[in-house]
Amino acid sequence: MLIVNKLLPQGQGLAPVLLKRASQVELDWDVRQKSRFDATDSLGRTLGVFLPRGTLVRGGDVLVAEDGSMIRVVAAPQPVLVITPCAQHGTPFDLVRAAYHLGNRHVQIELQPDHLKIEPDHVLADMLRAMHLTVRDAAVAFEPEGGAYAAGGHGGHGHAHHDHGHGHAHGDDAHGHAQAANPPHGAPGHVHGPGCGHDHRHSHATPATQANATTSVNRGKPIGIAVKAAEAKPHVHGPGCGHDHGHGHDH
Question: Which residues span the domain enclosing 52?
Answer without folding.
Answer: 2-75
